[in-house]
Amino acid sequence: MPWKIAVSQPSELGESPFWHPDEERLYWVDIPARQIHRFNDATGTLESWTLPSEPGCIAPARSGGQNSGLVIALRDGIYRAPQWGGALALLAPALHDPATTRFNDGKADPLGRFWAGTLYEPRDAARAQLFSLDARGGRAPVLEAKAAGATTANGLAWSPDAATLYWTDTPRHAIRAWDWQAGSNTLSHERVFRQWPVKPEGWQPGMPGYGGRPDGAAVDVEGNYYVAMYEGGRLLKLSPAGELLAEFAVPAQCPTMPCFGGADLRTLYLTTARHGRPPGELKRWPDSGCILSMRVEVAGLPVNFFRD
What we know:
Blueprint: E1 4-7, E2 14-20, E3 25-30, E4 35-40, E5 45-50, E6 57-63, E7 66-74, E8 77-81, E9 89-93, E10 101-108, E11 114-120, E12 128-134, E13 142-150, E14 153-158, E15 164-169, E16 174-181, E17 186-195, E18 213-219, E19 225-230, E20 234-238, E21 244-249, E22 255-261, E23 267-272, H1 279-284, E24 291-295, E25 306-307
């Protein structure tokens, strides 16, 4: 396998990784542990910040062109932290019932809005949505629903030309795509980008016959879409047309989300999960929950900053 262990301290459920170019640190969340982590590869320093509820996703923020902390989607709303470990200011309360639904996968778009999808925890109906928060130019934050009909929101990404938006419903094993008008923030021409077979009845970890379901994703400068296949033990590289270009076996049954980092954006980082996984699986894959990395030939897109 091409992977190395980038961060050996495991998370329960690592998600939402991004490389911060100003700080040269890798950030990610551990959802059930209610923590945000950041790691300095040059010094080996790992820092952790515990939050009042589960952080579904995060993005770096800038105000007036200056690095200014994070935007964080917690269970009950989207918050702003002007600095690491600082006080949280509510930007917008959630438009869902936090008793049954929480924020999940999300990131900032190329124009500086923050997007976050939700996860409907009973998982018996497609009640999850995708939201966009606009607070640019100091305006009052506005949270709007942009898509719906999912159970677990994942896989949010944009094409390099910012003309296509991708969004995944993990339990449905499907990635959807829309034409996106960045200026007006409108979606049109919805279609299925890629569909996989659902999990066979009776399948258990370690058994053949199941390739996993699409989780988090990242896009490179050529428009290729990298998607982590949860329970599939693999990362896939798909062309802008949805064709399979490459498959990378992962030393964890449950990879969760990739991102590109390093000074040249050619280091691919991958979060993984160990939360709730069976003992036999963790014995076979003891690095489950760690952050993996490998070098790639094509650079990824840089992280987008939330702007206010």
